[in-house]
C-alpha cells in the first residue's frame, strides 16, 4: 500500500511515539500528528514538542472539550444510555469525535491515510475505523498493532531506544493500569484487574474519594434543564463542558461514580474494567428524574425500550451509522418538553433525587394523583371496567384450562 501522507491520532506516549517513527520508516511517508484535548487533563504541549523532535512538520493540538460535551456527551445522555446496565460509555463516546476531527485534518492537509494506536484486541480499533469509513469512504487506514511485531512494552522500549525516541520514565511506582481519560470519565484496565476476583487498590482511583471517606454532610445541588440538557447549576448558566467539569468535581468530592464491570467487548471477549464517571452518574439520575415529570408514559417506555440498542450502537462504534442518527432524531424530538429543575442529594457515593419541578411542562397533576378528596377529578368507579377488560384474555384462558 503506497502512502504519501498519514494523519496519526497522537498522544505523545510511548505507543504513539513509536508508531510515529514506525510509520516514517515502514511507509516512507509524511506523518501529520493530531492530538485531541477532550479533557484528559495534563499538559498537551509536550506532545507537540515531542512530535516536532521526531521530524513532524504539521502538528495539530485541538481543544475539543466543548464540542465533545455539546455534540456527543449531551445527546447520549438525552437517551439515558448505559451499556449492559452499568457502563456510561465514557471511552466509547470519545472515539467518533476523534475520528471526525482526524478525517477533517486529513482533508485539510491532503492526506491519503489515517492511523491510530488501538490494539487488535480491543473495541477502539472498530470505533475509530467505522468512523473513518463513514466520513471518508475511500480513506486508507493503518493500524500498526495489526501489522508489526512490537507486541510487548519491552519491545516498544527497545525500539524507542534504537531510534532515539524520547520516553518519559515516571519516577516512583509505575501505574500498572492501562488508562483512558476524558471529560466524562477515567477507565482502568490491566494489572491486578485482570483477575475479576481481585478488588481494585484504593490508590488507583483518580477522580473520586472513597465513599466511606467522603464528607459526613450531604451536598445538595440543583440542575436546570432545557430540552433535555443541563443549562445551569444552582441557577448559574454554564456551557456543556463547564457543566461536566463542575459535576465531576462535586461528584468526586462525595465519592460518586465508581463502577467495577466485566463487560462483553464487540470483538468477542469479556473484559474487566473499572470506571470513574462522577458527572455522568449525576447526569443520568437527574435526567431520568426530570423526564419522569415531563414525558408521556408511552414515550418514556418507548425510550427505555430503544435505549439498550442505542447504547450498543455507541459501544460498538456505530455513532455515524444511519440507524444511530435515526434514533437520535426520535430521542431529541422527545426532549422538547423536558424542561425544569432537579434537586439532588450527594452523599457518600450515592445520588438521591430530593425534588423535581417543571413550571410549564410537568404532566404531574396533583388534583388527580392526591390520596385526599379530589373533587371529582378522577372517578374511581371507572377502574372496574378498565380492569375487567384488561383481564378478559386471562379469564378466557383460565376457563379453557378448566
UniProtKB/TrEMBL annotation:
Pfam families hit by this protein: Arginosuc_syn_C, Arginosuc_synth
NCBIfam families listed in its UniProt record: argG, PRK00509.1
Domain Arginosuccinate synthase C-terminal: 177-396
Subunit structure: Homotetramer.
Protein name: Argininosuccinate synthase
Residue ranges the record marks as coiled coil: none
Keyword annotations: Amino-acid biosynthesis, Arginine biosynthesis, ATP-binding, Cytoplasm, Ligase, Nucleotide-binding
Family under the similarity heading: Belongs to the argininosuccinate synthase family. Type 1 subfamily.
CDD domains assigned to the protein according to its UniProt record, in alphabetical order: ASS
Location within or outside the cell: Cytoplasm
Pathway where this protein functions: Amino-acid biosynthesis; L-arginine biosynthesis; L-arginine from L-ornithine and carbamoyl phosphate: step 2/3
EC numbers: 6.3.4.5
Residues engaged in binding L-citrulline: 87, 92, 123, 127, 178, 187, 263, 275
Catalytic activity as recorded in UniProt: L-citrulline + L-aspartate + ATP = 2-(N(omega)-L-arginino)succinate + AMP + diphosphate + H(+)
InterPro entries: Arginosuc_syn_C (IPR048268), Arginosuc_syn_N (IPR048267), Arginosuc_synth (IPR001518), Arginosuc_synth_CS (IPR018223), Arginosuc_synth_type_1_subfam (IPR023434), AS_cat/multimer_dom_body (IPR024074), Rossmann-like_a/b/a_fold (IPR014729)
Primary location class: cytoplasm
Binding site for ATP: 9-17, 36, 117
Amino acid at each position: 500500500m503506497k502512502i504519501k501522507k498519514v494523519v496519526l491520532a497522537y498522544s505523545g506516549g510511548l505507543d504513539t511515539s513509536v508508531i510515529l517513527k514506525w510509520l516514517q520508516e515502514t511507509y516512507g511517508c509524511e506523518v501529520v500528528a493530531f492530538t485531541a484535548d477532550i479533557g484528559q487533563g495534563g499538559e498537551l504541549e509536550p506532545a507537540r514538542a515531542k512530535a516536532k523532535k521526531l521530524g513532524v512538520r504539521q502538528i495539530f493540538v485541538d481543544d475539543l472539550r466543548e464540542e465533545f460535551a455539546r455534540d456527543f456527551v449531551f445527546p447520549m445522555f438525552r437517551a439515558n444510555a448505559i451499556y449492559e446496565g452499568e457502563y456510561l460509555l465514557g471511552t466509547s463516546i470519545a472515539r467518533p469525535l476523534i475520528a471526525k476531527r482526524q478525517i477533517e485534518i486529513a482533508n485539510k492537509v491532503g492526506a491519503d491515510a489515517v492511523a491510530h494506536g488501538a490494539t487488535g484486541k480491543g473495541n477502539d480499533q472498530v470505533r475509530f475505523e467505522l468512523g473513518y469509513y463513514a466520513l471518508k469512504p475511500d480513506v486508507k487506514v493503518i493500524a500498526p498493532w495489526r501489522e508489526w511485531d512490537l507486541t510487548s512494552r519491552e519491545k516498544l522500549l527497545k525500539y524507542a531506544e534504537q531510534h532515539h525516541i524520547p520516553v518519559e520514565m515516571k519516577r516512583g511506582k509505575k501505574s500498572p493500569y492501562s488508562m483512558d481519560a476524558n471529560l466524562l470519565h477515567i477507565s482502568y484496565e490491566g494489572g491486578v484487574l485482570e483477575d475479576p476476583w481481585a478488588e481494585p487498590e484504593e490508590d488507583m482511583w483518580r477522580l473520586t474519594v472513597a465513599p466511606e471517606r467522603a464528607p459526613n454532610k450531604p451536598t445538595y445541588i440543583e440542575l436546570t434543564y432545557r430540552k433535555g440538557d443541563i443549562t445551569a447549576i444552582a441557577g448559574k448558566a454554564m456551557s456543556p463542558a463547564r457543566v461536566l467539569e463542575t459535576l465531576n468535581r462535586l461528584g468526586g468530592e462525595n465519592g460518586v461514580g465508581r463502577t467495577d464491570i466485566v463487560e462483553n467487548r464487540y470483538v468477542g471477549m469479556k473484559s474487566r474494567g473499572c470506571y470513574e464517571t462522577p458527572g455522568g452518574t449525576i447526569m443520568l439520575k437527574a435526567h431520568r428524574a426530570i423526564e419522569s415529570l415531563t414525558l408521556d408514559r408511552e414515550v418514556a417506555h418507548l425510550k427505555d425500550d430503544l435505549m439498550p440498542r442505542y447504547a450498543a450502537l455507541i459501544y460498538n462504534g456505530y455513532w455515524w451509522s444511519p440507524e444511530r442518527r435515526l434514533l437520535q432524531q426520535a430521542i431529541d424530538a422527545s426532549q422538547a418538553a423536558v424542561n425544569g429543575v432537579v434537586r439532588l442529594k450527594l452523599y457518600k457515593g450515592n445520588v438521591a433525587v430530593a425534588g423535581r419541578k417543571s413550571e410549564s411542562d410537568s404532566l404531574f397533576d396533583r388534583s388527580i394523583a392526591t390520596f385526599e378528596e379530589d373533587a371529582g377529578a378522577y372517578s374511581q368507579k371507572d377502574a372496574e371496567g378498565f380492569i375487567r377488560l384488561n383481564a378478559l384474555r386471562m379469564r378466557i384462558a383460565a376457563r379453557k384450562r378448566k
